[in-house]
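Readers outside the structure-tokenisation community will struggle with the description of the input data as it stands. Showing the layout once, in full, would remove most of the difficulty. For illustration, here is how one protein appears when written out as sequence plus structure tokens:
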Amino acid sequence: MAEQIYNVFLFFDAKDLCSVAGYATHLHEGSDQEGIDFLRQRVDADLALAQKVPLSRPFTRSEYNARCRIGEGHHLYDELFVQTGAGAAPLFVSTPVLDGKTHFNYSSEHGDLDVNEVSEKLGEPGVMVDWLRKYASDDGINFSQLIHDDYFLAIKLTFNAGLYVSAMKLLVCCIDSLAYIEYGDDRGAFVKWMEAYCDLAPLGITAAELWGLRNGILHMTNLNSSSVLKGQVRRISFRVGDSPEIPRDVGGVYYFDFLGLVHAFAQAQARWIESYNDDRGKFAKFVERYDETISDSRVAVAHLGDGGFATAP
């Protein structure tokens, strides 16, 4: 029995934004694989004939790639199938288009995308662990273990070695990363994330003050961030070990307990992870932004001709 099959085109502009999709249809008899092969052969010809449909919600290339990672890329342009009257599960091939030409370097089935398979087919050097597959199970993604391996292994190593300034730098960088995943490229993301998820009241500090400390120690390894020098926030620092007998406010610097911050952050992380159970729609953005991160736990390993190895994040 003949069915309607679709060549779908995603038109990306110079800013990598897709606000228009296109399609060409064919009546086809045969297996699904025969239909897919037919559509692939027709891509260039169908592009010239494609009827265009404005999308009510444009999406970026990185959003599309992230959705493809979890087998949901087609949901970004579902309205095209609604408009064309396609059934619940139409047979289709989708192709990105840039400057009027098809633009892709890899072809895959619709469904979860294996980045190692992509790298292998593209001939990229080295093999890298796919974090999405490593930390996934039938119960979902093990967020806690993922964050531990990518951030807290190094924090614990430096802290236990007595390298407390280095450990604090790594901790605030971890907060930076989670804040970016939550809010994107927003200068206020650090403070917003801490205020949304972390209770700093027992430490006697605010998120804005911690942001000031973060800027000072990361940029200059001192306590003199611009917000401190302008008098916008107190000058704060940290100490290891806390006791009611030891004053916290000394010489114009307020000292909070390092381990107290670690415990507060652990609770904040748990609240943040729980937010993904409350709002499942956040996960696609998590995948998109976490794919951009680099980590000591995820490096590409390449075999060298002399029998050695090379690694790169």
